[in-house]
Design a protein that fits this description.
Pfam families: FMN_red. By secondary structure, the chain is of the alpha/beta class. Helix content is about 35%, strand content about 20%. The protein has one domain: Rossmann fold (3-Layer(aba) Sandwich). The radius of gyration is 16 Å and the shape is globular.
């Protein structure tokens, strides 16, 4: 799997972002699984609010972000939950992308919440990915009560940390999956082997 490249997009702009911390763990697990990785921190990109009348090449760093996502074999999208959905910085980033960046690509999802499980945030970003014909990993990582989930930048709960790490391993494992295999005997359709 050394030729697999995983890019994670952090949809939080906070300096002490727990989403950022969690994505670092995802990428550490992906590296241990043999991938190269990069964390795309949206604080480092100039992304004006999406305007369909503006070409992507004229919209700050939108073209660069799209290129880096297009070059990845798998993408992990991470977001805090705001008002029951995912963050506006992540929405803006996704609006500058399209089928060229996501069609047939493996995408993992992670959401962080200060309160209850961020299920709706995961559902909303999953819908966006499906509309772009991405293959979304069934395993997703949800971090509720995030203030208690971390202590001094480390996970307080090893079970939760393992769930997050599993997302990184799955991103590598399924980076080359065929979203629509020709047959059940496809080499990449490991779940159908022997059926």
């Amino acid at each position: 799997m050394s030729d697999v490249h995983v890019a994670a997009v952090c949809g939080s702009l906070r300096d002490a972002s727990r989403t950022h911390l969690a994505l670092e763990r995802v990428l550490e697990a992906a590296e241990r699984a043999g991938a190269t990785t990069e964390l795309l921190d949206l604080r480092e990109f100039d992304l004006p609010i999406f305007d369909a009348d503006r070409d992507r090449e004229e919209a700050g760093d939108a073209a660069e972000l799209a290129t880096r996502l297009r070059e990845a074999d798998a993408i992990v999208l991470g977001s805090p939950m705001y008002h029951g959905s995912y963050s506006s910085p992540l929405k803006t980033a996704l609006d500058y992308c399209g089928f060229d960046e996501f069609r047939g690509k493996t995408v993992g999802l992670l959401a962080v919440s200060g309160g209850a499980f961020p299920v709706t945030a995961l559902e909303h970003v999953r819908s966006v990915c499906r509309s772009l014909n991405a293959w979304v990993i069934p395993h997703e990582a949800a971090i509720p009560n995030s203030r208690a989930a971390f202590e001094d930048g480390e996970f307080a709960d090893p079970t939760l940390e393992e769930r997050v790490a599993t997302l990184g391993r799955r991103a590598v494992q399924y980076a080359t999956i065929e979203p629509e295999p020709d047959s059940f005997e496809s080499d990449q359709n490991v779940g159908a082997e022997g059926k």
